[in-house]
Specification:
This protein has helices at 78-94, 153-166, 184-196, 208-217, 230-239, 247-261, 274-294, 313-322, 327-333, 336-342, 365-370; strands at residues 7-10, 13-15, 21-23, 25-29, 32-37, 47-50, 54-57, 59-64, 97-102, 118-121, 125-128, 147-150, 170-174, 200-205, 221-224, 242-244, 358-361, 377-380, 389-392. By secondary structure, it is α/β, with parallel strands linked by helices. Bound molecules: zinc ion. Residues 54-365 form the Amidohydrolase-related domain.
Amino acid sequence: MGLGEDTYLLGGRALLPGGEFAAADLRLRNGVIAEIEPGLRPASGSAVVEVTGFVMPGLIDAHTHVSWAGREPMPNTWAGVVGRARGNRLRMLAAGVTTIRDVGSLDGVAFEPSGGPACFCANQIVCAVGGHGTETAEAWAGLPKLAREARGADAFRAAVRYQADRGAHLVKLTLNAAELEVTPEEAAAAVNEAHRLGRRVACHASIPDAIDIAIEAGADTIEHGNGATPAQLRRMAAAGIVLVPTAWIFERFLDEARRADAGAVGERAWPPPVEIWEARVAAHREVVSDAVAAGVVLAAGTDAIEGCDPDSLADEILTLHRLGLEPIDALRAATEGGAAALGDPGRGALREGAAADVVVFEASPRDVVRDRIRPAMVFQGYCGHVKAYFYVQA
Ligand SMILES: [Zn+2]
């Protein structure tokens, strides 16, 4: 499809805001959905695509790392890293992911021109000196850094300004690893500076003390949220803080630990023993169901890092379903939930004026979720960019 031309998608059942499907045709133009209603009549000369099945907004991976994901180790050259990020993005798009939120990449790589999903990126991780985000520094020596370390409120503000100056769309702040690493004053300084600059803040908080600090500081999203108590989740719901539970990655680590235990992965310090992962996974399952009960908006994010495939959003959606979400709600965590994490109402929903990011599934949402079925078609055309994309699975 081209800009300035109409593209019609005729004959599908479209997901309407609210979660119901209804017969509706779509007209896409200039990167947005220009019309959505049943019985549209294409003008002669416009492109017409007959679709069968379920038409949904393009999927959003709310927690990814474009340069970090991949089965292979990190390349040791900049060109290699850029190529890895580009390949990852193209794989994501083919899986129906039309928008991503990159919450931490080697300095600059997320800004390299690339095909694939629209990318809202944090650029580097902002963290304490030696904090969570610096673990790979030695292994990736010689490459631009993944994390920008800070100590004290002023340094945290400066680290936030650096990301904004680089062009970051949001700020990623990590508050803890095994223990708390950032003070409430530092977190508040970083969040306030980001908000002053019009950037939302994604807070990595995976212990209850860090979750308290993130809520208190006014974070927009909490990443992982391990150990969140029902009271914390109620505060998050009241404050409109989105939870990105990244449930699949923990299940995956447990699976990996079990295989390592059985001798399948060999001698490695990582992952920690099976019992630790079993306890973590069990606790996190509870967090997800408590979050649903508390009315917290959930966003699907893979946290695919090294060793993981970048196009694994279907695994997170399936995991959310297994943890109790109805299939359609698990999918909506990857559409409306992702848009809520981004703070962008122009995405994640099929409505007039929204981005023309559309996927077509030829199976029911239930089967799509349970069997991790990929979309048969992916349309992408985002506003403000001279870019339009139409992809049909081979
Ligand atoms: Zn992450």
